[in-house]
Each structure stands twice: as structure tokens, then as C-alpha cells.
Amino acid sequence: MGFFRSFVYAFRGIGYALATQRNMRFHLAAAFYVLLLSRFFSLSAGEYALLMVTIGGVMAAEAVNTAIEALCDAVCPEQNALIGHAKDAAAGAVLVMALFSVGVAIFLFGNIQGFREMYYFYSSHPLHLAALAVSAAVAAVYVFKGLPGKAQSNRSGRSKDRED
Known about the structure:
Blueprint: H1 3-20, H2 22-37, H3 45-75, H4 81-109, H5 112-124, H6 126-145, E1 151-153, E2 159-161
Antiparallel strand pairs: 1-2
């Protein structure tokens, strides 16, 4: 396998996770808004590095969870207690990472002055506020519905074609 070919497979895996996993889409949308609004908090380069590592960690954990679920479903399509434990542990790993990311967010964004700056900016720039509101609505539809015509997972975690 060529070096560059491995990137094709990696991007295909990310695409699969985004297409089939609502939580991965949520993490992507949350990362977008966290990065967009972080400019109001005067973060240092080190704090931005911590933020990027945290975002990457949550999304990587979600991708690994998706891979484990897909592999478990392929190996054992029927109910199996050990498979259930493996899936639960993988989901738990994502939860642990997400909870620690909340701690990082409290540390980085706990400054009330950043929220004041955000308020003053958007209250004095109504078009920016409108664009933020519209983008949030679009992001919510993306998180809960995915992209039109893309595969989406059902409650068992198995991929299915959407029928919109």
C-alpha cells in the first residue's frame, strides 16, 4: 500500500463516520463553533494547542468507537454479551474524552470577559448575529439529519441508506 493511498483510506473512514454517526457530526459542529467563538477569549498559542488536541482527541475517540461498532457488527450480527461490552466500553471511552473536554472548555472559556466581548460584538453587528443564527440552524439540521442521500446509521449502529 502506498503512502498516499493510506490517506485516501483514512479520509474515507472519516467520511464514513461523518455520514453514519450523528455524534461525530455533533462533535464536528461543536468544534466549528468553539473555534469560531474562541477569538473572543484571547487564548494563547498554548491554549489553542490544548484546544486543538482536545478536539482531535474527542473526534478520534468517536472514529475509533465507530470502527469498533462496525467491526463488532460484522463479526457477530446477532446479540452477544461480550460484543455488547466491547461496544459499551468504546462508547464509554468517547464519553470520558468528552467529559474531560468540558473540563478543558471550563478552563479556557471560564473568563466572563470573553462572553462580554462576544455579546458586545454580536449586539453591535446584527448581520453577523443573523449569519451565526442561520449557520447554527443549518448545523443542527446537519447534525440530526446528515447530508441528503448519504448513509445514516440506525439504532443498532449498522449503516442504512436514508429514505428522505
